[in-house]
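Student:
Attend to each token:
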Amino acid sequence: MPSHQLVRKGVESGCRIWSVWDPAQLQADSAPRVQEVSEELLLTDLGDDAALAETMVRVVRRHGIDAVLHCGDGGSVLPVVRKAWQLGLSPNPPAVYERLHVREEGDRAPVEAPRVSVETLTVNGTHHVVGVTAQRTTGPPHFFVTGHLHPAPLTDDERKSIKAVVEERLTASGYRFGPAHTVVALLPHGPRIVSCRATLGGDRIPLLVEVARGFDLEAAVFTTLLGEHPVVPSASRYAEVGFFLLPEGRLETYTGTEDIAVTPWVCGARFPYAVGDRIAPVGDPRARGAYVVVEGETPEVTRERVAKARKDLGVEIRPDGR
């Protein structure tokens, strides 16, 4: 389940990549881009363990695959890792993922507790903390996630305590290689892990890391697999992704996307909708597909620039039922 950005960077690092996706989960505008940079795009039902295993074995034997990586999330992770481990092509045994993916008490943390995500890259059992990213939310009462800011504005003590709990979880699981995305709730008595996944962060968080630090986390997945040692620089600026906060309904018209894309401080933008498409409500994970990424010298500047991009996007949406 690799993104087209991840495949492209893997190819640029010197790898040949065969991509496996479930056609029901691959977004229409992403499919041709994944196919373009892959040796082959293989479509299979990731919910069918037998079909998935058959696809993996066929490709491994036909092309002499050296490693199998699951780049997404969900129920297909363990079946892929189990089969890859049997084939000698997974850097981690299946039990590692079972231990990592167990949700902690943090999922019962108050919804209003601030949350951050921690991106790590583990190489030969050493966990490199790439950075900590803060969640932007709607605030009360629902605290829906509306974007992310990197690096998170934290004190040194907060950063050290967050780093310690994440490294402890990764070490206890036996994780030996790969990226991990850990969500941590900041509670009055200290940080508590909400979830930990052996994958890259979504919502374009790797792009935020690259803009703020000059460190390409996606490329590093492959360069470390090929034997290089990751060196993560300090952040020189802030980067923020903001989702376009659109009302639920059917899209009738939209304007402004081209102007937003060429704004000097915009580092990336996506509006995957066409006229007639249904727009998911704020808080629905599908609504995160429309976003803008900006850079700035302070969190206040990036917040203002996201707000301006949202204002520059003009849409007319017909409420459902009308």
Remarks:
- The chain has three domains: 4-90, 105-225, 238-318.
